[in-house]
């Protein structure tokens, strides 16, 4: 998982849109689903690969981009991190768009949301 403060700039879905930033409406940290792998290159160098897992966008984020990061709710953290028993079907079920009503969206200003945000209730 990767904790984020909530300001996450998104590329515009169309050239006419200004870059935007999204955050959880209550401004809590959000935990993004992340995959990590350690491996050795063909030259023997130790490498680390990281990837943020994305999914189809929710209704609100679809206006900004064709995908969004998977945001994990606190109840899923132990299973995602392997602290509780689980299987691949259980983890795959976590890879869904976070509900639109939990987001705040605003214009991006230097990579962070401006003070004027639109909250979908």
Explain what you see.
It is built from two helices and twelve strands, in the order E-E-E-E-E-E-E-E-E-H-H-E-E-E. With about 120 residues, it is mainly beta. The chain has one domain: hypothetical protein yedk fold. The strands form four sheets. Strands 2, 3, 10, 11 and 12 form a five-stranded antiparallel β-sheet that branches. It has a three-stranded antiparallel β-sheet with strand order 1-4-9, with no helix packed on it. A two-stranded antiparallel ribbon has the order 5-6. About 20% of the residues are buried. Residues about 110-120 have low confidence and may be disordered.
Summarize the structure.
With 121 residues, the chain is mostly beta strands. The protein has helices at residues 77-80, 88-92, and strands at residues 2-4, 8-10, 20-24, 30-32, 34-40, 46-52, 54-55, 68-69, 71-72, 103-109, 112-113, 118-119.
Task: Annotate the secondary structure layout.
Layout: E1 2-4, E2 8-10, E3 20-24, E4 30-32, E5 34-40, E6 46-52, E7 54-55, E8 68-69, E9 71-72, H1 77-80, H2 88-92, E10 103-109, E11 112-113, E12 118-119
Antiparallel strand pairs: 1-4, 2-3, 3-10, 4-9, 5-6, 7-8, 10-11, 10-12
């Amino acid at each position: 998982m990767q904790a984020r403060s909530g300001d996450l700039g998104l590329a515009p879905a169309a050239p006419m849109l200004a870059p935007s930033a999204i955050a959880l409406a209550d401004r809590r940290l959000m935990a993004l689903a992340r995959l990590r792998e350690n491996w050795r290159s063909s030259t023997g160098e130790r490498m680390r690969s990281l990837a943020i897992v994305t999914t189809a966008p929710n209704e609100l984020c679809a206006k900004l981009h064709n995908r969004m990061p998977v945001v994990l709710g606190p109840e899923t953290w132990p299973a995602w991190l392997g602290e509780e028993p689980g299987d691949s079907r259980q983890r795959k079920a976590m890879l869904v768009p976070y509900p639109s009503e939990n987001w705040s969206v605003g214009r991006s200003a230097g990579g962070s949301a401006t003070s004027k945000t639109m909250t979908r209730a």
